Amino acid sequence: MESLEKLVIQLRQKKQEATKLKKKAEKQLKETRSIERRSSSGLNSIDRKIESEREDVSDTSDILTRKTSQLESIERLVAVAEDRLTREKEAIEQTEQEIEFSENPEEKEENEAKLRSLNDSVQELIAEIKSRQKTAKKILDDVTQYSNFKSKITSKIQKQSKSKPSLRETMAKSHKVAEKFVKELERRTRAEDSTKKALEKVSGKFQELLTKKRKAAKKAADTKKRKAAKKAADTKKRKAAKKAADTKKRKAAKKRPTKKRPTKKRPTKKKAAKKRPTKKKAAKKRPTKKKAAKKRPTKKKAAKKRPTKKKSRR
């Protein structure tokens, strides 16, 4: 019984230890899986970001190509306008010389009209050149901005691409550690199940022994109670029998003296009468109460009758 109880205690402690180790393995596996999931999630996130940023780079490149084409076109137009402006200015100088050396008023008027037309054309060309240069400057600013944006995205892609190997390494390492903890958890689970089965088996035997012991104790207690009850009943019967016998004896003893009363009544009265003179001596000591003592002769007779009652009670 004691060995079984010790074995139950040992198995319970072993089960608690196995459960503790199992929980520890579960916690370690959970943490490792979490690291692996974070690494995988980080890789997927980086891949998505890189893909999105590459799309941004592609869009920016298209915009830059378009802006560069516009800038080159404007620069060509400005160059053409500047060439025309140079020629127009040369024509103005020539026309001014012709006006200066014109021989008649009609020729002079024609040259002056030509000069006005050339001046107007020059002004238009200057305005056109200024407008195109302004547009070219704006496009150039856009090109610079998009180029900077493209450079930032490209450097970001490169940085994220560099972080991918470390994440892959962390994920691979976490996966290996997780597999190790899975095996550890399986081993701990088997140990816990084995200990649990052994504990259940031993506990069942221990409970059976306890049940048998309780039944035996109960049976012994019932037997003891029955014996005590039987003994009490026997004692009660003996006491009742003894009491009945004593009562019978007392009744028999009482019946015998009642038959002899007529013969014994007279001497008892004489003896009782002889015993009372003591009261008369007490009365002589008090002269004032002598008369009171003489006035109660009836009490003397009553005193003579009392001894008979005492004998009957005996």
From TrEMBL:
<feature type="compositionally biased region" description="Basic and acidic residues">
    <location>
        <begin position="20"/>
        <end position="39"/>
    </location>
</feature>
<dbReference type="GO" id="GO:0003677">
    <property type="term" value="F:DNA binding"/>
</dbReference>
<feature type="region of interest" description="Disordered">
    <location>
        <begin position="20"/>
        <end position="62"/>
    </location>
</feature>
<feature type="compositionally biased region" description="Acidic residues">
    <location>
        <begin position="93"/>
        <end position="110"/>
    </location>
</feature>
<feature type="region of interest" description="Disordered">
    <location>
        <begin position="91"/>
        <end position="114"/>
    </location>
</feature>
<feature type="region of interest" description="Disordered">
    <location>
        <begin position="152"/>
        <end position="314"/>
    </location>
</feature>
<protein>
    <submittedName>
        <fullName>ATPase V</fullName>
    </submittedName>
</protein>
<dbReference type="GO" id="GO:0030527">
    <property type="term" value="F:structural constituent of chromatin"/>
</dbReference>
<feature type="compositionally biased region" description="Basic residues">
    <location>
        <begin position="212"/>
        <end position="314"/>
    </location>
</feature>
<feature type="compositionally biased region" description="Basic and acidic residues">
    <location>
        <begin position="46"/>
        <end position="57"/>
    </location>
</feature>
<feature type="compositionally biased region" description="Basic and acidic residues">
    <location>
        <begin position="166"/>
        <end position="203"/>
    </location>
</feature>
<feature type="compositionally biased region" description="Low complexity">
    <location>
        <begin position="152"/>
        <end position="164"/>
    </location>
</feature>
<dbReference type="GO" id="GO:0006334">
    <property type="term" value="P:nucleosome assembly"/>
</dbReference>
<dbReference type="GO" id="GO:0000786">
    <property type="term" value="C:nucleosome"/>
</dbReference>
<dbReference type="InterPro" id="IPR005819">
    <property type="entry name" value="H1/H5"/>
</dbReference>
